[in-house]
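Example record for the data management plan.
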Amino acid sequence: MGRALLNLLMVSMLALAVSACGRKGPLEPPPNHPEQGPATSDGIPVEKPNRPFILDGLLN
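Corresponding structural encoding:
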């Protein structure tokens, strides 16, 4: 009985700790962060090359 109560208490404390993380609300950009991504001198955004990732086979 004591071990089951201890397990229940530990799981409850973990759930409470995880649920209390962060702030509720919209995401905020970091200070001094540009609104747009990198661009060339004429204002056209730079496209990143598509590099394969080791887990692509599992994700797609």
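Summary line stored alongside the record: The helical segments are 2-19, 56-59.
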